[in-house]
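pls design
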């Protein structure tokens, strides 16, 4: 009896509203739950998973039901696979992280193909630029933060540099750290 190879989706994740663009390309099995996709996006973008989140795909919302933030239209992300979206013809959807700061990401399905031999999934394929720090205050707060940390004469430079805990290079996505985070998820998915 032969078994079909696992299908892998190549996804391009782009943080909306920021230029130059902050983006990642990841590959993940279509059998993965949307909760696992959330974990992969968190790791690939460098977020810390400290806030509420959701996916909006067509007319449906997926996330982790939270009694403190009731939403009767929210479907549990742990019960829906990426493949279910692909089968419905969904090729692009939104992932929102931190419903206060409202970090919206466009997730585009670039391709679905068989898994490559001896390759561990999920995996980070490519990307550019560092994500904003957690709790920076959304798009306006990130713009202020970038201006302040780049200019030692800015009135908020010292405060925001201290708040961040060190230098911030928006061009350096810190790929080694992101690769390690994704590899940790891939190891947990094996077996």
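designed seq:
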């Amino acid at each position: 009896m032969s078994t079909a190879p696992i299908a892998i989706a190549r996804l391009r994740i782009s943080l909306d509203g920021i230029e130059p663009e902050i983006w990642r390309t990841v590959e993940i099995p279509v059998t993965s739950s949307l909760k696992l996709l959330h974990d992969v996006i968190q790791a690939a973008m460098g977020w810390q998973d400290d806030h509420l989140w959701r996916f909006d795909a067509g007319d449906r919302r997926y996330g982790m039901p939270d009694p403190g933030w009731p939403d009767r239209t929210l479907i549990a992300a742990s019960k829906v696979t990426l493949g279910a979206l692909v089968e419905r013809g969904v090729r692009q959807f939104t992932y929102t992280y931190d419903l206060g700061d409202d970090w919206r990401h466009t997730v585009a399905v670039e391709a679905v193909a068989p898994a490559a031999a001896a390759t561990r999934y999920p995996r980070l394929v490519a990307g550019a630029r560092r994500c904003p720090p957690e709790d920076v205050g959304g798009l306006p707060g990130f713009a202020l933060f970038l201006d302040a940390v780049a200019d030692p004469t800015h009135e908020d430079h010292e405060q925001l540099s201290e708040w961040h805990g060190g230098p911030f290079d928006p061009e350096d996505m810190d790929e080694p750290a992101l690769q390690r985070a994704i590899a940790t998820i891939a190891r947990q998915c094996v077996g």
